[in-house]
Specification:
The chain crosses the membrane at residues 21-44, 56-75, 87-105, 117-137, 149-169, 175-195, 207-227, 239-257, 278-300, 306-325, 337-357, 363-384, 405-426, 446-465. This protein has 493 residues and is mostly helical. The protein has helices spanning 16-50, 54-82, 84-104, 108-136, 141-169, 173-178, 180-194, 209-232, 237-259, 273-303, 308-324, 329-336, 338-356, 365-392, 400-428, 436-461, 480-492.
């Protein structure tokens, strides 16, 4: 079901207000992605000034991931129930305040708290923003173009975060924390004027409070367990008991959702093969890239002795390629469909990661590193927009926030899980006091795992190639009675 009040006709050109709305949403997603990557380069300076241990510094990154990944499901459903515009703008205001707090604090615990609050607010802006797009732009070429621009801003923000952090940290790490604040305020003011009002879900069956509590608790515990596992040990009693608790919570969550009249996640959505492939593909895509970026950053700074800015510039070609392709991907999706583009993108990632296995202690950037960066940039430009389009196509307007939250959860949880796995593999193959060559050799198994994750993503995508044409507006898991009722109403009209 679509809303005639917000969808432009397919033949219409975008109005200045539509462009303005999209730019506001893109700015928020850019900030979300920027914040994930930007803090990494600043960690040494933060630790030095605030006298923080390595384990405490980890929580400056993990705190954001915990709030973001743990509350996305709740954020997506809240947008559907309370209104996407309201949820988006309130969360964006909280994000701005948390950014200001993070740049002014003088203690580690307060900085970690500000990062958790930013992650929490991003868990509401991300699904709300994506669902605003999918309910404002009609499914098809209009939406594909909008989503290609939107998701490209996310990929660009993640890539540019390294560059901006390298530049700002030269002056002060506090600037990396403060930078999002004025941008968020400007986006908030523009959003108040431009973002169309949305109706709350007209469903008076009540809120799924038990599902919200159990679902949020299970996601928070899962992310926390995965983040802590490399430090406390994957086989430790604490880790195993935590995973067991996650399994119990998820089992209870599924039971609650099946019985709830207004579930946090309508499980019928996951009966769609294209939806499942989109969710698993998102996990493999982001998980492989986060693991790759982590290892390459260590390689460039620890082994090659490159500065933070030099390292950031090495990643720049990938981000630039993604940015330049932002307005083109939508037309390519219209022509070839999402499954083909996702498959091609994952194939490029596999080749790019495999090529990076050739690196040594004296690499020629243009011959060894640059080809990988260009291949990964092309892959990101193809895969990320296509995954978002595939996940949101054929879903009713009143469930767009739910599906958006689910997709973003897959992205964040995939990143957390696979980064922890890659870290564990590298740690298992390293030893104290090793020579630079031995350290590089310990990175190679991690790079092989990254390549394997991308290959799994490719294999997941291949069954979707059997479909000759892109799937059009298939609403999954409706009962026969609902479909018959809809048909009767249509005939009566």
């Amino acid at each position: 079901m679509t809303s005639p009040l917000t969808h432009p006709a397919p033949q219409e050109r975008w109005t200045p207000r539509l462009w303005g709305t999209l730019l506001v949403l893109c700015a928020a997603m850019f900030l979300d992605a920027l914040d994930v990557s930007m803090v990494g380069v600043a960690l040494p300076s933060i630790g030095s000034e605030l006298d923080l241990s390595t384990s405490t510094l980890q929580w400056i990154v993990s705190g954001y991931i915990l709030g973001y990944g743990g509350l996305l499901l709740l954020g997506g459903r809240t947008a559907d129930l309370l209104g996407r515009r309201q949820v988006f703008l309130v969360a964006l205001g909280v994000f701005a305040l948390a950014s200001l707090l993070g740049g002014l604090v003088d203690s580690g615990p307060l900085l970690i708290a500000s990062r958790f609050i930013k992650g929490l607010s991003a868990a509401f802006t991300a699904p709300a923003g994506l669902s605003i797009i999918t309910t404002t732009f009609a499914e098809g070429p209009l939406r594909n173009r909008a989503l290609s621009i939107y998701t490209t801003c996310a990929a660009t923000g993640f890539s540019m975060g390294l560059v901006l952090s390298g530049l700002l940290t030269e002056a002060s790490w506090r600037l990396t924390m403060l930078l999002p604040a004025p941008i968020a305020v400007i986006a908030l003011l523009a959003g108040l004027k431009l973002i169309p009002r949305s109706e709350r879900e007209k469903d008076h069956r009540g809120y799924d409070i038990p599902g919200a509590i159990i679902g949020t608790a299970s996601m928070l515990l899962l992310v926390f367990t995965v983040v802590q596992a490399p430090e406390v040990g994957w086989g430790s009693a604490r880790t195993l008991l935590s995973f067991l608790a996650v399994a119990v919570l998820l089992t209870v969550f599924v039971t609650v959702e099946r019985r709830s009249p207004s579930p946090l996640i309508r499980l019928g959505v996951l009966r769609s093969g294209s939806q499942i492939r989109a969710q698993l593909g998102a996990m493999a895509f982001f998980g492989s890239y986060v693991g790759f970026q982590f290892l390459v950053t260590l390689y460039m700074q620890s082994l090659l002795g490159w500065s933070a800015l030099h390292t950031a510039l090495a990643f720049l070609p990938a981000g630039a390629l993604v940015a330049l392709s932002s307005t083109k991907v939508g037309a390519v999706v219209d022509r070839f469909g999402t499954p083909r583009l996702i498959a091609v993108g994952f194939a490029l990632m596999v080749v790019g990661y495999a090529l990076f296995l050739r690196v040594d202690l004296d690499p020629v950037y243009a011959a060894v590193i640059l080809p990988t960066m260009l291949l990964i940039g092309a892959a990101c430009a193809l895969v990320f927009p296509s995954l978002n389009i595939q996940a949101t196509n054929g879903v009713d307007d009143h469930e767009q926030g739910m599906v958006s939250g689910l997709l973003n959860t897959s992205v964040q949880v995939g990143g957390a899980i696979f980064l922890a796995v890659v870290t564990a593999v590298v740690t298992a193959n390293s030893s104290e006091g090793s020579s630079p060559q031995a350290v590089l050799d310990s990175y190679r198994p991690g790079l092989m795992v990254v390549t394997g994750i991308a290959l799994v993503g490719l294999l997941i995508t291949l069954p979707g190639l059997r479909t000759r044409r892109p799937q059009q507006s298939v609403v999954v898991a409706k009962s026969l009675q609902e479909e018959a009722e809809a048909e009767r109403v249509a005939v009566g009209d």
